[in-house]
Amino acid sequence: MIWKNVMKMLNHLGYYADLNNFDNLTKIIERLPFELQRRWLRYATAVEEDGLEASFSDLARFVKDEALVVNSSCGRIFKEQHHRREAKASMHSTAVEVVKDYENVRKCSYCSGSHCLHTCASFKHIGGSRIF
């Protein structure tokens, strides 16, 4: 209900039209997670099919409704399952990165250090005649 008070205050101050400005609405929508942006697109399209233009109050109502869904008991179950799937994916990603890092560790053929020959400081300091 805070958003209603904010909208009333902005309306009283004469700034309510700024909230309904297309560019400002776009900036707000761009900050939503991608999935919510897709749902908002459907919601706004339905508003436009009724012959109206989507407004800030429509967006605020949409966000409020989505928050109610996500925070419902079913929404929390879905969120927990989603986090588990993300954790599994990130564990796999981390394991792959570790393998890649391990593969990237080279052993210098000159000093046996953990770098490539062309970056070896000891090798760079020897003279050209000593190489051959």
Structure notes:
73% of the residues lie in helices and 0% in strands. It is an all-alpha fold and 132 residues long. The chain has a domain at 2-71. α4 packs across α5. The longest helix is centred in the C-terminal third of the chain and has 32 residues, at 73-104.
Short description:
The chain is an all-alpha fold.
Helix percentage range: over 70%
- CA-based gyration radius: 29 Å
Largest sheet: none
Count of individual beta strands: 0
Q: Could you tell me how far the N terminus lies from the C terminus, measured between alpha carbons in angstroms?
A: 81 Å
Keyword list:
single chain, about 130 residues, mainly alpha, 8 helices, about 75% helix, about 0% strand, elongated
List the helices and strands and how they pair.
Blueprint: H1 2-13, H2 16-19, H3 22-30, H4 34-49, H5 56-70, H6 73-104, H7 121-125, H8 128-131
